[in-house]
């Protein structure tokens, strides 16, 4: 189970290692931003098929359902977004917005495969290379999820280890 608001780069690395190039021409999106926006739209519509279409090729239905469990519910209304590249062909898109009147930040990890961008769907507890929440926090140097700093998007996208996401 991934933590909300935590950069999901670990899952993306796993996906990039195991992803296959078997997508149809209408799968994925032309840009990282478009793929992330399609993910948010599918979450808001509770659209499992839409998540499967934007998720990495050959993603299992169970992973699309996990995405709805993790991010579904009341509509998320994005107000601003930023993107940054963690490593070649893999970007995190951050959306600051609201859900049910409360401020919320969602991160969508996307990756490029043969010129198309796909969203990384969540893995179950038995996914490849999955870490527990506690292990992720420890790796990032935090004792608790509450310790993760709430950094404004403008600062998040210009942090030392980031690079612009290709458009």
Tally of helical runs: 6
The CATH topology: Nuclear Transport Factor 2, Chain: A
Q: Would you list the SSEs in sequence order as H and E?
A: HHHHEEEEHHE
Report the major sheet.
Answer: 5 strands, antiparallel
Output the structural class: alpha+beta
How many β-strand runs?
5
Helix content: 25-40%
User: Which class in CATH terms?
Assistant: Alpha Beta
Q: Which stretches are poorly predicted, pLDDT < 50 over at least 5 residues?
A: 1-25
Strand content: 15-25%
Nearest-angstrom radius of gyration?
Answer: 15 Å
Strand order of the largest sheet: 4-3-2-1-5
The geometry reads as globular
Averaged pLDDT: 76
Give the N-terminus to C-terminus distance in angstroms: 30 Å
CATH architectural grouping: Roll
Please state the oligomeric state of the protein chains shown: single chain
Number of domains: 1
């Amino acid at each position: 189970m991934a933590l909300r608001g935590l950069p999901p780069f670990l899952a993306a690395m796993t996906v990039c290692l195991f992803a296959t190039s078997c997508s149809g021409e209408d799968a994925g999106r032309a840009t990282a931003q478009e793929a992330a926006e399609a993910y948010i739209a599918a979450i808001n519509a509770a659209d499992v098929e839409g998540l499967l279409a934007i998720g990495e090729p050959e993603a299992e239905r169970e992973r699309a359902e996990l995405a709805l469990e993790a991010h579904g519910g009341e509509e998320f209304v994005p107000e601003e977004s930023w993107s940054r590249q963690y490593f070649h062909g893999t970007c995190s898109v951050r959306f600051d917005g609201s859900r049910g009147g409360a401020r919320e930040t969602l991160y969508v990890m996307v990756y490029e495969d043969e010129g198309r961008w796909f969203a990384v769907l969540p893995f179950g507890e038995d996914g490849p290379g999955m870490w527990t929440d506690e292990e992720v926090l420890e790796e990032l140097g935090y004792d608790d999820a509450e310790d993760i700093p709430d950094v404004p998007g403008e600062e998040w996208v210009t942090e030392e280890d980031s690079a612009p996401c290709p458009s």
